[in-house]
UniProtKB/TrEMBL annotation:
Its cofactor is pyridoxal 5'-phosphate. PANTHER family: BRANCHED-CHAIN-AMINO-ACID AMINOTRANSFERASE (PTHR11825:SF44), SUBGROUP IIII AMINOTRANSFERASE (PTHR11825). It comes from the Eukaryota. This is Branched-chain-amino-acid aminotransferase. The modification N6-(pyridoxal phosphate)lysine is found at K233. One of its GO terms (molecular function) is L-isoleucine-2-oxoglutarate transaminase activity.
């Protein structure tokens, strides 16, 4: 890790892709006498009366859950216990559990997609397993064999695959979660933990076409700091963000744009990674996103956007609609640069990326009392994000064969 001074803000430089960030972190725990997760030991307790499937047109994200869930206990003295797939429902946990008092928890988010031929796939689930282990290490929760957990997730999806609506743009959102469950008040590494995975059918993020969002540049709150937890998917990152989102809404904006330091570096768009597209002085086009510097979450969609763009630039996989002279950068971006580029007509687009929306275009940023207008196309998207979004969604739904699409066999 290298410290770098950017203006007067001290920021951490830890690498510039999720792949590089996790390369040195194994999915499985180091050799130990403690038991690790073993998918072959799963016990099934299947529901006898399946719940009615909701009308896809009425789906609201994260409000309806499938018939089953996966639960795996852990103890410091013995390691991981027997995995169980059982009916979705509440489970007993004591009021003194550490998760309630010290936010000792983390989670992931990924999706299962139904292809036209009926096959079900996951998108780059190995990246979620790696990132989950990294988050667990950061908050002193147990790590695990990611391949084994992934096998259990596949089995859960197989059981509840009929919850994936057979309509374009629909999917099954999968939420693996790990919490400290020991019944004791006192700040200490977890002695007991609980892994669980729940699933929820999800509709398209933009059911009526893309609607660019207006952002409020947040300068009065800070999402993360160097050496903190901003680059980890832990629960403590999210509740403090709600007040900033409410502030943005109060000013008439849809979401907030997190800025960092006196230079107002662009970091994240709400809970998404941020991208900007600039026309450079020589006329070529730059797709830029903040580098993974220790305060930014290494998003899997972020990494995928960069990978698709770089494959195009290198000639490995040319993408129709992207310019041949595209430049892909991971670097600091200040709001001053964004504002001046917009004023000069050189800011071509701005968008966020994440699992839920994939790509979310932005048409306005409120910053220090002024609105920065950002161009969008007639469909709401920009010239660079549009072909990348088409490529990503094509991989999701199976129209474009790709190694990132992991088929769940019957």
């Amino acid at each position: 890790m290298m410290l770098r001074l950017l203006g007067s803000s001290l920021r951490y430089r830890t690498g510039n892709s999720l792949g590089r960030c996790v390369a040195s972190v194994p999915q499985a725990r180091s050799k130990s006498t403690l038991a690790d997760i073993e998918a072959s030991k799963v016990q099934l307790d299947l529901i006898s009366n399946r719940k009615p499937r909701p009308d896809p047109a009425t789906l609201s994200f994260g409000k309806v859950f499938t018939d089953h869930m996966l639960v795996i206990p852990w103890k410091a003295s013995t390691g991981w216990g027997t995995p169980k797939i059982e009916p979705y429902g509440s489970f007993p946990i004591e009021p003194s559990a550490s998760v309630f008092h010290y936010a000792a928890c983390l989670f992931e988010g990924l999706k299962a997609y139904r292809h036209d031929n009926g096959q079900i796939s996951l998108f780059r689930p190995d990246m979620n397993m790696k990132r989950m282990n990294i988050s667990a290490q950061r908050v002193a929760l147990p790590t695990f064999n990611g391949d084994e957990l992934l096998e259990l997730i596949k089995q859960l999806v197989r059981l509840d695959k009929d919850w994936i609506p057979n309509r374009p743009g629909y999917s099954l959102y999968i939420r693996p979660t790990l919490i400290a469950s020991q019944p004791a008040i006192g700040i200490a590494p977890a002695s007991e933990a609980l892994m669980f995975v729940i699933c929820s059918p999800a509709g398209p993020y933009y059911p009526d076409g893309f609607k660019p969002v207006a952002l409020y540049g947040t300068t009065e709150y800070t999402r993360a700091a160097p050496g903190g937890i901003g680059s980890f998917k832990v629960g403590a990152n999210y509740a403090p963000a709600l007040v900033a989102q409410k502030e943005a809404a109060k000013h008439g904006y849809v979401q907030n744009l997190w800025l960092h330091g006196p230079e107002h570096y662009v970091t994240e768009v709400g809970t998404m990674n941020a991208f900007a597209v600039f026309r450079r002085p020589k006329g070529d086009i730059e797709l830029a996103t903040p580098a993974l510097d220790g305060i930014i979450l290494p998003g899997i969609t972020r990494d995928s956007v960069l990978g698709i763009a770089r494959d195009h630039v290198s000639g490995k996989a040319k993408l129709a609609g992207l310019p041949d002279d595209l430049v892909v950068s991971e670097r600091p971006i200040t709001m001053l640069e964004v504002k001046e580029a917009a004023k000069a007509g050189n800011l071509l687009e701005f968008f966020g990326t994440g699992t839920a929306a994939v790509i979310s275009p932005v048409d306005k940023i409120g910053y220090l009392g002024d609105d920065i207008a950002i161009p969008t196309g007639p469909d709401g998207m920009g010239p660079i994000s549009r072909p990348i979004w088409q490529q990503l969604t094509g991989i999701h739904n199976g129209a474009i064969p790709h190694p990132w699409s992991v088929i769940i066999s019957e």
